[in-house]
Amino acid sequence: MTTPDETQIADLLRLLPPAPERWTAEARELPRRRAELDRVLPVIGQDQDDEDERSREEFEPDDRLVGSAPGGRGSNDDVEGHMHESEKRPSGHEEEKRPSGLDEDSDGDVEGHMHESEKRPSGHSEEKRPSGLDEDFDDDDVEGHMHESEKRPSGKRPSGLDEESDEDV
Amino acid sequence: MTMELSGITDAQLVARCREGDERAWAELVDRFSRYVHAIVRAYRLSENDAEDVFQDAFARAFERLADLRDPSALRFWLAQLTRRLAVDRLRRSATETPSDQLPEPAGMDESITRLDEALVVHQALAGLSEDCREIIDRFFTRDESYSSIGEALGIPAGTIASRISRCLAKLRAELEGRWEGSRPSSV
Q1: Which of A15, A77, A92, B144 has the smallest set of CB atoms within 10 Å of its CB?
Q2: Nearest residue in chain B measured CA to CA from A12
Q3: Do B79 and B117 fall within a single domain?
Q4: Are residues B132 and B172 in the same domain?
Q5: Chain B: residue whose CA lies nearest to A6
Q6: For chain B, how many structural domains are there in total?
Q7: Are B22 and A31 in contact (CB < 8 Å)?
Q8: Which chain A residues contact residue B64 at CB under 8 A?
Q9: Residue of A7, A13, A29 to mutate for B, most B C-beta atoms under 10 A
Q10: Residue among B133, B121, B157, B130 nearest A14 (CA)
Q11: Does B102 touch chain A if contact means CB atoms closer than 8 Å?
């Protein structure tokens, strides 16, 4: 192969214009980017593991709640006891099982909350707020209402805490 | 181009890259970016596909540099890598728009041989003075006008033509002896 003359050299030179600078710059950065990835990926993997662990914990069955379900584990947890109570209340068995009302060791907050939740749909809120549940219906309103509800003689709510019964009251 | 690395052979460059020398990798990219780019262009890919193939070629080279049995065959290896990636890209496009034509454009082996020769010429530029390199590169590969080159380099535009002629003669002299080492990169 003979060495090309100047014209041929010129032609050959024209065959290799520069690659776009951005492309070349990106290719030059490969080792740095790989090193960065190698550094970051294990951290992301660990974060994902932690996230998975948190998810498992969040969805771990709560013995107190599972036990409260019919056929549940039947632990002697406060909430479970309360949940049984709530469920049984409409059927009239509550007083047979727990004649003294709330257990001493029951969790008042949870229990109170559960009562509230169950009583929330009651028609008493409509007595106080004839317009129904406005968007600006705040916690105080609910709380006030719930206190009131709780003060009602239990004899007036013999059939449980459903909305119809409240309306009846 | 990194000055102290620009003079080393491809095999030495590969060895430095394998040791994790980032500057050596940058030199490898500088040394072959035009070549890889020209191969990609020969396949007439879309701009996006061309860029993908270009980046993939260097990414694969970076990952597999340790597998290169003959480091002095770096150019040949890079050409093969790039061609295969370009053909893969063309096949994928052909799947989207079926065609009876083969994805590899006709005469590609000859085109690559010409690109090999062009690369030898381009690498021979390294043996010239900074002025000659600049003038020749600007005029032949960047298509700049005499006045533009004159402005950029601070020399009268009227002298550019004669300078180019002198530099080409020097380049030809530089090529003597290098030329035989040129080898085609057919797949």
Answers
A1: A92
A2: B118
A3: no
A4: yes
A5: B168
A6: 2
A7: yes
A8: none
A9: A13
A10: B121
A11: no
